[in-house]
């Protein structure tokens, strides 16, 4: 479990993620609060997808289709708003899961699929956005709007998700 | 005739459901903004608004877009459902109750509450984003629909709802929503 904590130390983390240094026991890893994470670029292309224990396997084509479908539904929901200033769907409550979506000012969308009634997902999404700005956008080899292949982003993301699960278990 | 008043099948008169001008922003329970009722074929049986300052599209286009959004959201949730192992292909037609459905979504300006009956009647209620769970409210509206529309001998299934009694009870009930 502490595979990547050495990397974590080397990189000074400016936000409040690395504060809680009390590492939990590996028993906690059994619970799944988050099922998957998607990141969509501003034109609806999937640039990052990670699965954290969904029941069925989703192939690459399906995840791409789902991402672009979400992109368009997000746009349509703005058109149907009865009042002005709508910025699209934040939260979709299905019978078996919740979907929380966060859209950055540049149009990149982050959404997580999690268990119903999971709290504090907005904070997690903002944290993931911070990781994205820190380790993806500041990466000189990253091309904008292209799929994310950044090792540091992966490592830190895994760390944050793990922390989040542990926090959920500790409630 | 005026009392039941709903046997003209052919066209939806533009003034068929005059929306009462609900005072916006008052504390009198004007949480509900718009209601749509669709049947399984996508025909809009009822459109009624209580508080809608913004209309980006013509009414007909708006209804079609709403039905399309719900159709896509249904196939989206059925496909992405992380708790089931078998998924139909994305976009494959789903029967009512088949696959994982959803009951609401929320944006910063409104909340859409959705219910689908086994016969394929879709009830959509748009409310203020901070209203709570409206599943029971939708069930109640569905029971009003059964009571005052389906049991109305002059109502032809699949035609737009023009039953004054239903509208009256709907308006009354919607005012009580929190």
TrEMBL record, chain A:
Main location: endoplasmic reticulum
GO cellular component, one term: endoplasmic reticulum
Subcellular location: Endoplasmic reticulum; Golgi apparatus, cis-Golgi network; Golgi apparatus
One family name in Pfam for this protein: Sybindin
UniProt entry keywords in alphabetical sequence: Endoplasmic reticulum, ER-Golgi transport, Golgi apparatus, Transport
Record has Endoplasmic reticulum as a keyword: yes
Complexes and interactors: Part of the multisubunit transport protein particle (TRAPP) complex.
Similarity comment: family membership: Belongs to the TRAPP small subunits family. TRAPPC4 subfamily.
Protein name stated in the entry: Trafficking protein particle complex subunit
TrEMBL record, chain B:
Compositionally biased tracts (Low complexity): 10-19
Source organism, top-level taxon: Eukaryota
Family annotation (SUPFAM superfamilies): SNARE-like (SSF64356)
Record keyword Endoplasmic reticulum present: yes
Predominant cellular place of this UniProt entry's protein: endoplasmic reticulum
Location(s), subcellular: Endoplasmic reticulum; Golgi apparatus, cis-Golgi network
Span list, region Disordered: 1-27
Assembly and oligomerization: Part of the multisubunit transport protein particle (TRAPP) complex.
Protein name: Trafficking protein particle complex subunit
